Amino acid sequence: MTVTPIWGAAAAKTKKKAAKKAATSTDSTDTTSSSTNSTISRSLTTAAAGPATMNKDLGQHLLKNPQLAAAITAVAGIAAGDTVVEIGPGTGNLTVHILASPAARVIAMEMDPRMVHELERRFAPEIAAGRLRVVEGDFLKKFDEVVRHEQAAGRHGIDLVISNTPYQISSPLVYKLLEQLAVDPAAARERPTRALVLMFQQEFVDRLLAAPGTPHYGKLPVLVNQYGCGGIEYVCKVGKNNFRPPPKVESAVVKVNLLAPAEAAAAGTTGREFVSFAEFDGLVRHVFTRKNKTFASCFSSKSVLRELEAIYNRRHPDAVAAETSALVKAAVEAALANFVDVRPSKCGHEVFWDLLLAFHANGIYFST
Questions:
Q1: Which DSSP category does 48 fall into?
Q2: Which helix (H) or strand (E) holds 236?
Q3: What separation, in Å, do the N-terminal and C-terminal C-alpha atoms of the chain show?
């Protein structure tokens, strides 16, 4: 598990202090330098209130603290020319800070038509200039389309994702982002995504950062650590009063760095080759249905073996069906030779990686 505080360097102590102050404050003032765009400049210090009532079914809580919005934007490390996707912009209280950054383009994905209307009204000049694109709809259903649109337009890809979304979709959101954005940097035609800056319920963050052998440890931290090659950073805790209406739970911001440090990648010391999210997730999904059992027990299930047989047959259409069952069972046993008594709940993501390689060496795969 690689979890590092984002403000690790001594020289960054001032920033850490500012972020903590922002996260616990409800002050509506902000000292961010003014943008050349007058609309953005005026909005940096004023949080838009939005509709009189929030949609409880969508779990809406608008971020209202400009200092916190500025701190989140700074943490993202937006560079000139970047394309940034913002998930759950609401009325644009975080959007305005992203637009004031060096980002070339911002894609704001919002489900509530009322919020979309407010975004289009508030940022009409930026939309007209092509700096902001507002996408209406469910992120989980629309994100694939957004990625395809960027590729079809011949753009370099999505550099960063910033999210303040309803907490009930936290797990699906993380899986969707990893599925779409965790690409092999060496094979990617476009520039790969650098990082995800995500706000979640504190309890979910505890699960995300859980270490092997602890009660919260599960599939989620294994996947995030496997594809967060540059480490997971706990940014700050966020108090309830930073939102309107205040949620019933505390929140926190984390940053998942999808790329390994440049010097490690250049030296070939990232420690593992790339496999697709679907393949690695296929393995992890099977074992965490029974995480306190041994690996051998997890793969003794008839339903699991039948699924692996089906995948094997799809990958080997010329295989003799009558022989597949015995062949797959023997291959699974061979792959597990060094993992028989190991329990998933006690293993770091590196062990799952080694196990996946053992399966591959014996011709067993978890996706087609």
A1: -
A2: strand 231-238
A3: 29
Give ranges for CATH 3.40.50.150 in the chain. 62-267
Which residues are bridge partners to 134 per DSSP? 108
Angle (CA) 316 317 323, round 5°: 70
Residue list, annotated binding site for S-adenosyl-L-methionine: 61, 63, 88, 110, 138, 164
62-267: CATH homologous superfamily?
Vaccinia Virus protein VP39 (3.40.50.150)
- The residues near 214 (Cβ < 8 Å, ≥ 6 apart) are none
Burial environment of residue 151 by CB neighbours within 10 A (0 to 12, 13 to 18, 19 or more): middle
Distance CA 42, CA 163 (A): 23
| Single-letter amino acid, residue 212 | P
Distance CA 251, CA 271 (A): 33
Give the pLDDT of the chain (368 residues) as one tens digit per residue: 445 544 333 334 434 454 555 555 443 333 333 343 555 554 565 555 555 465 555 556 789 999 999 999 999 999 999 999 999 999 999 999 999 999 999 999 999 999 999 999 999 999 999 999 999 999 999 999 999 998 888 777 899 999 998 888 999 999 999 999 887 666 555 678 999 999 999 999 999 999 999 999 999 999 999 988 888 999 999 999 998 888 888 999 999 999 876 644 544 444 456 788 999 999 999 999 888 899 999 999 999 999 999 999 999 998 887 889 999 999 999 999 999 999 999 999 999 999 999 999 999 999 98
* Known binding residues: 61, 63, 88, 110, 138, 164
Q: Please state, in angstroms and rounded to a whole number, the distance separating the CA atoms of residues 203 and 258.
A: 22
| Look-up of token digits 């305005």 | 96
Q: Is the peptide bond before 185 cis (omega within 30 degrees of 0)?
A: no
- The letter for the amino acid at 176 is K
For 331, counting Cβ atoms within 10 Å of its Cβ (0-12 exposed, 13-18 middle, 19+ buried), the class is middle
Which one-letter DSSP state was computed for residue 33? P
Q: How far apart are CA 182 and CA 277, in angstroms?
A: 7
